[in-house]
Amino acid sequence: MANPLLTSDLLRRLEQFQLLAQRRAKSSTRGERRSRARGQSVEFADYRNYTVGDDFRYLDWNLYGRLEKLFLKLYEEERELPVTIFLDASESMTFGEPRKFDFARQIAAAVGYVGLCGFDRVSVISFPDLPEEAALRNSLRLVRGRKSALTFLQSLSQITAKGASALNESLRRGALTARTAGVAVVLSDFLDPDGYEGGLTALVSRGFQVNAIQILAAEEVNPTSFGDLRLIDSETGALQEVTFGRHRIANYRQTVNNYCQRLREFCRSRGVHYLNALSNSPLEQILLRQLREAEVWG
Amino acid sequence: MHFLAPWAFFFAAVLPVVVLFYLLKRRRVVRLISSTVLWQKFIADTQASAPFQKLRHNWLLILQLLLLLLAILALSRPYFFGRTSGGKLQVVILDASASMQSTDVAPSRFEYARGEALKLVDAMHDDDQMVLLQAGSNTEVKQSATSGKSALRRAIQGSAAVDTPTRLQEALKLAETLIQNNPTAEIHLFSDGAIPSLDEFENSGLPLVYHQVGVRSENLGITSLDVRPNPENPAQRAIFASVSNYSTNAHEAQLELRQDGELIEVKVLKMRPRESSPQVFIASQDTDAVLSVHLTGQDDLSVDNQASVVSVLPRPIKVLLLSQGNQLLSKALRVAPNVTLSEASIVPETDEKFDLVVLDNMTPLNMPSGNLLAIHVVQPNWFESVGTLESPPIVDWKSSHPLLRFVNFDNVQIAECLLVKTPTWAASIVDSPQTGLILAGELGRQRIVWIGFDPLQSTWPLRISFPIFIANAIDWLNPASINASQLSIQAGTPFRLALTEQVTEASIRMPGGAVRKLEVNSDKGEIVFGDTAKNGTYHLFGGTNEVIFCVNLLDERESDTTPKPEIKFGEYAKADSTTLRRANLEFWRWFAAACLAVLMLEWWYYHRRTV
Fold first, then answer.
1. Is the distance from CB of B469 to CB of B427 less than 8 angstroms?
2. Do B468 and B327 fall within a single domain?
3. pLDDT of A31 strictly over 70
4. A193, A228, A231: residue with CB nearest B610
């Protein structure tokens, strides 16, 4: 299965993974995840008294033989796990070599593929909204089944990054519109002037198991422009004047570390899995090792 | 701390300009980046839209303000007083004598002294006063007491060295007068120390600061020059020149003799250090001529490398002897060269003019107007009182006087002599304890040699010294030789010429070729020309006559250019050369150096900050 985002080899290796969900699936659609709901499956769950109209097939005749009472055997219903991938497709994601957006799409593709392989319902919510790509982006919602994977990957590879992100707003809206909470993977640089706290909190509050993956470009960690600079924000157009020299790189890095550390602390305090990566990091290492270590999948 | 240029503090007005630059926003390179969130966290620059920003702690600003302050301090030329007792009045004496033309200090000692004097002017306080004297053969006040630095600088720049010896007494006397009753005043002498004795200032305690100029002595010089008939062949002329090597190294030089500019003879001299070598040239001469000697070779002082003398051919001297009969005297007069002797017992009533008259024991009623050799003559106009003294012993005689050249008074006894008080017009050249025995001097323009005893009443005519003295006296009294000697003068000495005809105006052609007009007061009967500061041959045109006279340095003290570390006032007092200038100790250079260091630091800091 050739696609521009992931190699077939990598896809094959991803097939062994399954997204980890700490909570039971709450979806109403049947799937392959254990849920609290009772239904038809092979996993015994409980007994209950027989009431009129129950299916005789589920009566436990052995118990009737011993106790002469009718008990109905209940089985766990297996439901699907909704996997929602929040993909930051703002202008700021187009920076870096390779672009942060490309890297984020690759991770999104991997997560989506793993979800599809596990018969989970995968949705990719890319923000900000781009009216001209509305159809394309809608095709990435509620994708289910392995056979949809090719379409899914192709659609994902076609979306573009543009405009100013509103991370908080997008996450909040995603949390509200989700019918059922599931696993949420947020792929962003988290460099939003309005912050990230509100959005992540909304997801957690909605019951999502959130995985935050911060993607930064190498030049954002190690700037290569020096001197008297007037910096223009690609999304907001805000100006920032700075006089920068090599001797201040260490201070700058410290600032970046502090920022990431603050995000990490925030995530930890809310039970959010956090991972950060540079856009030029080896993809396989992220997918096969770090995401596993971060218990995104296993 | 004081400031020589306090006006430089006006430059402090540029300090706010530097601050203004920091208030103004700088031109920046525009970069599009993904997000400014991280940068906002990192930097503290504000994004105010106003052209000015809040002044914040900035090392560059502080460095630049410091830089400017240091530069302003350097420009204001701060100084400390080097010495606490500074004179409010400074009398600067610039030695402008010939030796100051030495080139051992580039470009010359005099130029160096001028530069030092200018520094002294720069270091003057606003209320200080300075007088500038230039000491050559005479003292010239180049600038009277003033606080005006520009006037003083002009005066210093307008002074120039001359070819004359120094006569510092005059300058010091003037300076002493100027600083009278001014205890804080100082005299600053810029000189190489080639100056005559200053014994008279031994006890005056002059506040003299001696600034020694010159570093070495590398000079050969002609220190004397004379021309005489060749003793072995009176038809020839003998030129006596003395050359001295004042340097500490041996030198080889050539001494050229020129007659009216034409090379006659060259002698090669090998001079050892500090050696003096007399040289004699013999030359035939048909007419009066200017003989000059020239020393070739490189040395520090060129002004003493040539000297000229006017050689006048000897003419017969007409001598009248008024005597009652004195064979010894008559014989002595006859053996003298070129003498035409007439003898008489009374003053002859003829119009014939005699070059000199010898009065032997006679006092004529009408004294002859020519030069006189008066022997045992009592002339009331000459002396206040006249007495007699028996057996006066001869205790002293001035052997340096031309009259006593080669004359010795040992074993001369005198039976009786006249007892007189030495008049002002004459000097005693042979002394007994009570009276002068032989007087020589000039009364009006009449030269007189007076012998106060009758030689026949003494043993003197029996001695060899008697005819020598008579020959010397004839030479000294001979108007022609007097004139000839007057034709060679030392630089700075006025030239005097007795007029034989009525002249109202004259002109002089100077050595450089310039012609100067002279107005002559015919009543005085002589021409006096004082501007003889330049060495060389001068041509005087007066009426129908042309007179040539030569001006030479011929001064051993000036030719000896060895810098003297001290100036002696007599035996005990002296002034050491000082390196303690009265000049204020400026330290603007330190500020300028610090300014440079801060500039480099600022440069480094700026690049460290932006690259």
1. no
2. yes
3. no
4. A228
